Amino acid sequence: MKILITGGSGQVGQALLQTIPSIYEPIAPDRSSLNVEDLASLQQGLQHIAPDALINCAAYTAVDKAEEDSELAKRINGDAVKVMARYCKDHSIPMIQMSTDFVFDGVQRRPYSLSDKPKPLSEYGHSKLLGELAARDNCPDAYIVRSSWVYSAHGNNFVTTMLRLANQGTPLKIVDDQIGSPTCAHNLATFIWQVLAQRPEQKLLHCSDGGQVSWYTFAQTIFAEAQTAGLLSVKPDASPCTTEQYQAPALRPAYSVLDCDPSFAALGLQQIDWRVALHEMFSRRPAATGLKVPGRLAQSARA
């Protein structure tokens, strides 16, 4: 069974490739082979690959840049998804579309359920909601998997950024009034493979690691794990700040915890606490992660 993984070089795509069950044959073309920005080329590429299932991890993820580059964000996160969904419908194959907690406005103070109405605050959130609707409306066998605060040992994400900046000695101001659930890409990938294998009746699913935390407290936990693993050469100069003080171009939800209980129950899975997941990722270093020792990390950051 050929599984097309778009965005295979990203952190979720890489996690999917590392955890893929042996019964599947992965196809993860690079941008030169399958460019989701070029809709006509995308259509031709899908016809050429002829997958048996499609997992779409390709996305425009630069949240702040999307405020001024909204058309490109909508083309990648919305229009390209419509092309993929229509292909999957026409060929009667399942599709899994990745989405985000940023489709919510963060006003409420309880975990967002599957029935809560999306109300994105940013252009990025709007574009991801367009992708949800494109998948839902154009492919009857499309699954939408929302996640939050995804990180891994590879690529650009909050964990690797915090380690890079801390090892450079950069003073850090970290937002302490936004609350969410960090999600290890490895655990998200395991969840996605179960969705494909079990094909539950519920088409909209939530997947994050358990618990909730602010960005600042998450960073402090990252630093503690990194010090234990010998990945920090200096004591981080970090202090909390408010969202208003940080002044990011794009608005972010103040509270974006996802209610994952029904989704995990539907698949017979147990949610892992975010602290346990973070510790496990650091424990897998160096053989199974891209995290490096301080000297090499600092050197690569200056390159």
What does this structure look like?
With 303 residues, the chain is of the alpha/beta class. It has a domain at 2-152 and 182-210 and 251-274: Rossmann fold (3-Layer(aba) Sandwich). Helix content is 42%, strand content 14%. The strands form four sheets. It has a six-stranded parallel sheet with strand order 2-1-3-4-5-10, with helices on both faces. A two-stranded parallel sheet has the order 6-9. Strands 7-12 form a two-stranded parallel ribbon. The protein is globular. Residues 293-303 have low confidence and may be disordered.
Average pLDDT number: 92
Assign the CATH topology of the domain at 2-152 and 182-210 and 251-274: Rossmann fold
Q: For the record, what is the CATH homologous superfamily label of the domain at 2-152 and 182-210 and 251-274?
A: NAD(P)-binding Rossmann-like Domain
> What is the number of strand segments?
12
Shape: globular
- Placed side by side, the strands forming the largest sheet appear as 2-1-3-4-5-10
Residues in helix, %: 40-55%
Number of helices: 11
Could you say which structural class the secondary elements and strand pairing correspond to? alpha/beta
